[in-house]
Amino acid sequence: MRISELYGPGRPVFSFEFFPPRTDAGFAALYRTVAELKRLNPDFVSVTWGAGGSTRRKTVDIVIRIQQDIGVTPLAHLSCIGSTPEQLARTLDRLETAGIENVLALGGDRPPDYAAPPGAFNHANELAAFIRSRWSFCLGGACYPETHPAAPSPEADLANLVRKVDAGIEFLITQLFFDNTDYFAFVERARRAGIEAPIVPGIMPIISIASVRRVTSLCGAAIPVELERALAVVEHDDALTMQVGVEWATRQCRELLDRGVPGIHFYTLNKSPATRSIFQSLLEE
Length: 285
Ligand code: FAD
Fold this sequence. Notes:
The chain is of the alpha/beta class. 48% of the residues lie in helices and 15% in strands. It has an 8-stranded parallel β-barrel, surrounded by 5 helices. The longest helix has 21 residues, at 238-258. The protein starts with 12 loop residues before the first strand and ends with a helix. The structure holds flavin-adenine dinucleotide.
């Protein structure tokens, strides 16, 4: 199933994101989580692409297993970092041979002492154009309601996003955000810039203080004062922290759905309870 065909009039599209675990035990837990979340009938699940060689092979193995054994449409993330075009081509050939139809084309984050291999692409638009030149995958891309942290300005970031869409990206998934106002303002600016592709909000339920601090320091998402206050009250209690996170994300999702978003992409952090709980309250309405 080509993911771009799912977005459109009708019901919203729900998707879950996972990352390749480091250990064998992590793999067993991941497949359990995917199987648990499959009961919620997600439209697709995505698997991230790591910077290291061994995690990269895992992404391909996992998406193939998700499609063939678990029976859910997968989206394979793929980034420019650390690969030559020939290596990327081998990965794309492997995905194509296995019948995978969807790729999220990413620039990726450069590790601190990064030395680009010969001919490596720098940005997602170059990767998207490369994929378009030889393969027929349905292509997604990333976008940033609060602006990408490395972009010189929101305007420059948006101009780069236009370039990415022009290179063949058919749908966009946003970086996580906690304030819907940022998302709606961004969609308006993107539409004014001529971007017509579906812009799918990415939602991360907070499951612990440590993880939200780590993730927001990396991606630059702001935590609204009201949420920060609620977290401060419960920060020494993991169960209550998760409850605050779930309630916040559920409220975000409700408003987004009420205002007609094309779907919601959940950053699951490889855990099912928070996402399941949000999903169930949304379905109960
Ligand atoms: P790009 O589109 O290349 O943009 C990166 C920066 O460069 C932006 O500041 C942009 O304005 C600028 N830029 C873009 N194009 C050009 C150009 N042609 N010339 C000059 N400047 C340009 N990371 C991973 O490592 N693995 C993953 O699996 C992964 N999955 C993600 C999924 C989603 C939904 C999101 C939102 C992010 C994900 N990331 C992942 C993180 C992402 O790789 C980083 O945020 C990275 O810094 C940017 O990726 P990008 O695809 O947006 O890159």
